[in-house]
Structure formats: structure tokens, C-alpha cells
Amino acid sequence: MIGNYMWDPTTNKSFDIGVNKDSLMPLWWNGSEPLWVTLTKAKRKVYMYYWPGCEVEILGVRPTYCLEYKNVPTDINFANAVSDALDSFKSGRADLAAIYHERIDVEGHHYGPASPQRKDALKAVDTVLKYMTKWIQERGLQDRLNVIIFSDHGMTDIFWMDKVIELNKYISLNDLQQVKDRGPVVSLWPAPGKHSEIYNKLSTVEHMTVYEKEAIPSRFYYKKGKFVSPLTLVADEGWFITENREMLPFWMNSTGRREGWQRGWHGYDNELMDMRGIFLAFGP
Questions:
Q1: Which DSSP letter does residue 261 get?
Q2: How many CB atoms lie within 10 A of CB 18?
Q3: Would you indicate the residue range of the signal peptide (predicted)?
Q4: Are residues 31 and 136 in the same domain?
Q5: 262 with 251: CB under 8 angstroms?
Q6: What single DSSP character describes residue 195?
Q7: Residue 37's closest CA among 56, 67, 63?
Q8: Residue 198 sits in which domain range?
């Protein structure tokens, strides 16, 4: 698993997160063992809430309970999941519970990581966490429950009006077998006989770096992935790579039309401060 969008040239199958049924195939998921699979194998009971992939059979295993992710969970959904998870611990139904809450990410994408909307989303999460500490005490779990809170990535500002790299200005898209993803990291599979030409042309493009698979920096922890493409493009911080401007991922704003500019993104070089996440924990 190397990203939200992947392609397997052997089977001609694509992984497009939340979009296609092929993304649920074991092909994509069996390359590593998630914590919930390890615990389930060890006869532990695992409850998962809105966690992408918990509905997939991985290495022949499913968690005890999976509340499938379908839409962005609301703050009420998040609070209810926390309460239900604590009830599951109290009753002995669960040994591990994991909850995914996406609202901070969504508001950061739409309005930017420093926006009032993103800050309001964080305040809403903080309110639920305040109640969580109270609920832990009320259920008598404070001496036996460990809580870990972490993010899956950071986020930085992007500027579509000024900082867009349009690939069709530098290469013919007909010379590509496949393109996956847009943004800070884009995967390219050149057509037969076109690898060197594509690489040489894109190597001159400013504000991005093109890597052949073996040249990808080891600190990315990426190049040994099964589905890594022959060429990987990595944008400089704040820049956005796409086939052309028409393919930019607009979102449906208050007008009801897909015309809203995205203001924040993640997936840039992992040495950048803005890409860092958080890891908090408390418990006995």
C-alpha cells in the first residue's frame, strides 16, 4: 500500500480510494499486516469505527466489528463512536478500539491549515476528547485503558492560482500508459520505449523532482513498494502537479457546484516541518 491511487500493470487493476470496487481486492491489502489483523489473529477482540479498510478481508482476517467508512463522519458521529468504544471496553467486548475522524483533514484541504474552519474543527475534536476523559472516569476505566491519539500526516498551504505544474505543457500524455494521483506526488508509467524521453523532459521542469524507482530517496520509505511506478514526480512545497488545469480536484462549495479551490494539501517531502504529524498518549 503506497498511496490512495495505485495501478497494477500485471492485472491492469486500479486502486482508487473510496471510488472503485477493485480497491477492496486483497491484491492491495495483503502486502503488510495491520495491527488489528495481528490482534485478531491473537484472539483479541477489535472494534473499528470509520477506519478505511476495516471492511476488507486482509490476510484472511476481519476485525470483530467494523463501522464502515462511507461519508465524512460528523462531530456527533465521532462522539458516539468514542462513547460506544468505551462501552465496549467496559463490557469486555473489545480489547482494542480504533476511531478515524476526518473533519480536520477535510476543512484543512478546503480552507487551508491555518483557516478558522480548520481551527473550529480542531476545537470540536478537543471538546469530544474532554468528554472522553470524563467518560473514562465514569466507566471506571482510568486504571486499565491506554489512549493513543495520532495524525496520519501534516498539511501545508497550496496556491492553485500560482503554483500549478501542468504535465501536458512538457510531455504528450499519449506517451503514458497510466497516470495516478495529482498533487505533491504523481506516479507515471511511460509507454514502451518512452521512458527515457519522458524522464529527460520532466527533469527540466522547475519546482518538482522526477525520480526513477531506484533513485527515490530511502528516507521516503517508498521505493521498495510493490506498486511503485517507474517514474515518480515530487513537487516542491506548495506546488501542485496535474495533467492540466481542467483536472484539478475542485470541491463542491457553498454554490453547490464543483468550483471551490483547495487551500491545503499533504504528501510533500517528509523532511518539511508542515508534513509532521502528532502523537499523544496517556494511560497506566
A1: P
A2: 10
A3: none
A4: yes
A5: yes
A6: H
A7: 63
A8: 164-262
| Residues in contact with 251: Cβ distance below 8 Å, sequence separation at least 6, in sequence order | 109, 110, 258, 260, 262
- Number of Cβ atoms within 10 Å of the Cβ of 284: 8
55 and 152 inside one domain: yes
Condensed to tens digits (0 to 9), the pLDDT of residues 7-37 reads: 999 999 999 987 889 999 999 999 999 999 9
Which triple of cell numbers denotes residue 140?
A: 471506571
pTM: 0.90
Whole-number Å distance between alpha carbons of 113 and 236: 17
- The count of structural domains within the chain is 2
Q: Grid cell 470524563 — which residue?
A: 134
Over residues 125-165, the pLDDT tens digits come to 999 999 999 999 999 999 999 999 999 999 999 987 789 99
What CATH number has the domain bearing residue 140?
Answer: 3.40.720.10
Cell of 109: 484541504
60 and 152 both lie in a single domain: yes
